[in-house]
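The following block was generated as part of the benchmark described in Methods. Ligand: alpha-D-mannopyranose.
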Amino acid sequence: MKRLNANPLLEPADITPTREDFEVVATFNPAAVRVGNETILLVRVAERPIAEGDEVPVAVHDAEAGRMKIIRIDRSESVADTSDPRLVGYKGQTLLTSISHIRVARSSDGVNFTFDANPAIAPTTPYEAYGCEDARVTCIDGRYYVSYSAVSGWGVTVALAVTDDFRTFRRLGIIFPPYNKDVCIFPEKVGGMYVCRHRPFKSKFNQACIWTAYSSDLVSWGRHAMTMEPLAGTWQSERVGCGGTPIRTEAGWLEIFHASDDDGRYCLGAMLSDLEQPERLLHRSSRPVLLAETDYERTGLYGDCVFSNGLIERPDGTLRVYYGAGDSVCAAAETTVEEMIAAAKR
Ligand code: MAN
């Protein structure tokens, strides 16, 4: 893949926080879709209350009260989790050091983006108390379905919303219970059913694998099947998860997935699955198609990280891969369907 010279495309300085007492810490992991002449990104915007002194301020959305609750954790009270700056331990709970919402950014050239003035999907339901993260968007019969992580003290779940205009979004509820994330919906039915990928978390018995499921209404999912496991001793040893909307090609469904190794380093890979039975993996790349190399990928809220949930195929067979870098900014790279098929088979 070739990175765009304009990278990073969006960064925290490009947006004003939702409140004067908040600061934006990251604008990353964008879903991507072409609508007419516009490229639309659904960006994860992570904010936090501005600290006053030696504290870790945490914002949690209170659905009943309909507003944010700020918890000001004295550093002496917090259980420092130095392994992950995204989390903070407090009174036996694990909280997030930032709260995310999903925001639309628009562009006529796919490179220069402007954020909408207001959030598209912001914490509202009790399942979203800790935030709405990492959207993926799929156009089916002219409507746009958005899946995202809804995070709360009840765990990481997957929620679904639908929009026709990217201005108003209607919530369709939680489609996967905890712990699950990384859901992308295929752009067409296979064997008369909708298809998606999902990613249950690892446990003492299982690794974090990519699963496939089927549905007749996009809300109730079944016929679950394990599709792709991590590979011990490689760049994809710790977890794998799907990327943006799969693309139908002659060689199978093409997808750009993310993977992390035992050191928590995130790379992108290419995979191909059977057109008629997408739960059947055909090929996966033995080498990453993108790994964190530039400054904006190696540093940030969580460095050494490239994570893609936005994939756009252009009519000429070129691919635009939108991705989050260092859990902090949005970037994009360019490649072709042919090249990614070859990479998956390599
Ligand atoms: C992980 C990371 C965070 C995210 C939480 C909850 O720790 O992906 O960025 O906020 O999970 O989803």
